[in-house]
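SEQUENCE-TO-STRUCTURE ENTRY
===========================

Backbone structure tokens: a row of integers, each naming the local backbone shape at its residue.

Task: work out the structure tokens from the sequence, keeping to the layout shown below.
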Amino acid sequence: MSSFTLYILTAFALVFVIEGLIYALFPDSVRKMMAMAIQMPPEKLRMFGFVMAATGFGLVWLLQAW
């Protein structure tokens, strides 16, 4: 397995760990956030998704450059 594939799989695994911990530790807050997300217009959710993806990409780029 190439090192790139290992990095990608590790990243996905860490996403599952972090998301699982959020659901386990703060279930009521997650429900409230989901209810708020349902009421938001799709454009606002889409913009939030783009901002989060760009932030994550920027962090990965900075960490690789460091």
User: Anything to note?
Assistant: The two ends are 25 Å apart (CA to CA). Residues 42-65 form the longest helix (24 residues). DSSP finds three helices and no strands in the chain.
